[in-house]
Amino acid sequence: MPDPIKTKAQRGRGLNRVFTDELGELGLDLLVLAENDSFELETIGFEIAIVPLKGDCLVTIDGQEYRLSRKDVFWSPASAVCLPRDAKALITASAHTELALCKARTDVKGMPFFVSSEEIREKTVGRDIWERKVVDIIGSEEKATKLVIGETFNRPGCWSSFPPHKHDTAIPGEEVRMEEIYLFRLNPAEGFGTQTIYGEQGSMSFRIEDYDAVTIPWGYHPVSAMPGHELYYLWFLAGDGRVLKPNTDPNYKWLEVR
Questions:
Q1: What is the pLDDT of residues 48-65, one digit of tens each?
Q2: Taking the model in full, what pTM does it have?
């Protein structure tokens, strides 16, 4: 099983590869378009969900048009277009646009679908200094073949993905095996957070800055934000099925109880 990796997502005009072969099932690209740019996206071998980080664009596939519009992840809600494997879509921007392309290898040919900002599901998770907002964008209710996608918003100085949990092993009734990728934003952008990953394989900690991305192939993986700075991350998973069953570190399960 590979070790976790942190990298900076580049934002040059066009397609920026972030993670390609670092994991068995998942990949991540960042597509940056200037006003009036067009880009033809081919999904060879992958299911790809397009999640806007900022901007405004039209995604055209099979004669259908879907609009993705977002001022910024901290100021307006998410939406997404999910494309099946072996499809072609034309993306046309009407403003500077940044799109996360969340990719999962799949043998199943699904159907394209759109999740509007009115259809996403927000909830408050945790308590005390690990209370945060979690947004489900593509959950088990949607008709994806592999992907599960959402967002987490950390308050300044607080924790998330906490109490620490993992999902790297298939344990019937207790844990479902899933890979995961996080893509981070900070507000203000000059701040930082921490990503810790630990388990039987070892322990690693990363200083997380704006537009950093991390692979999570194994281990418990809590996140913290520095004081004075809000931290956001887009997260997506693929693995054994599409129903999440995270397994909390037994040393900290008592924190789940009020």
A1: 999 999 999 999 999 999
A2: 0.97
